[in-house]
């Protein structure tokens, strides 16, 4: 995973070193993104004590669109905004949502495009396996 501070993201970047990170790219206009948030919240809360975090990266054109979405949807994980789309471009993200699961060493281990509730158990198993690695 690249140094996220070099992409000019808006918002406060949490410390990710040594954690398993679910890096989720999303937009307020994306229906599957909205559907994913309860699942992401659950994972963030369930696995936080084991060294896991969800980090949302919003790609909306305006911060107002992002803020309106966040007010309507309960979010327990940190969110930053990629206003200049530098990180989105570097990660070659073209589908919303898109996510990457990054291990404790900062290596991208899994990538997912779209969100389907039926896949949540398999993704949860990927997270659990990475949390079990030293």
Concise structural overview:
The chain is an alpha/beta fold and 134 residues long.
- Low-confidence runs (pLDDT<50, min 5 residues)? none
Overall helicity: 25-40%
Would you tell me the structural class of the helices and strands? alpha/beta
The largest sheet, given as strand count, sense and whether it forms a barrel, is: 5 strands, mixed
Q: Which geometry do the CA atoms define?
A: globular
Following the backbone from N to C, one meets helices and strands in this order, namely EHEHEHEEH
What is this structure's SSE topology?
Layout: E1 20-26, H1 31-47, E2 52-58, H2 63-72, E3 79-81, H3 86-90, E4 98-102, E5 108-113, H4 120-132
Parallel strand pairs: 1-2, 2-3
Antiparallel strand pairs: 1-4, 4-5
Describe what this molecule looks like in 3D.
The chain has about 130 residues and is an alpha/beta fold. It starts with 19 loop residues before the first strand and ends with a helix. The protein is globular. It is about 35% helix and about 20% strand. The relative contact order is 0.23. A hairpin with a 5-residue loop joins strand 4 and strand 5. The model has no long low-confidence stretch (mean pLDDT about 95). It has a five-stranded mixed β-sheet with strand order 3-2-1-4-5, covered by helices on one side. It contains four helices and five strands.
């Amino acid at each position: 995973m690249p140094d996220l501070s070099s992409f000019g993201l808006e918002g406060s970047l949490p410390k990710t070193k040594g954690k398993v990170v679910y890096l989720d790219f999303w937009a307020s206009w994306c229906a599957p993104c909205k559907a994913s948030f309860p699942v992401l919240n659950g994972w963030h809360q369930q696995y936080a004590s084991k060294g896991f975090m969800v980090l949302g990266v919003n790609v909306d054109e305006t911060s107002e669109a992002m803020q309106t979405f966040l007010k309507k949807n309960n979010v327990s994980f940190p969110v930053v905004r990629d206003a200049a789309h530098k990180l989105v471009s570097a990660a070659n993200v073209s589908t919303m949502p898109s996510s990457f699961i990054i291990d404790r060493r900062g290596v991208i281990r899994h990538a997912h495009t779209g969100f389907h509730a039926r896949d949540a158990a398999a993704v949860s198993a990927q997270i659990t396996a990475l949390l079990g690695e030293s």
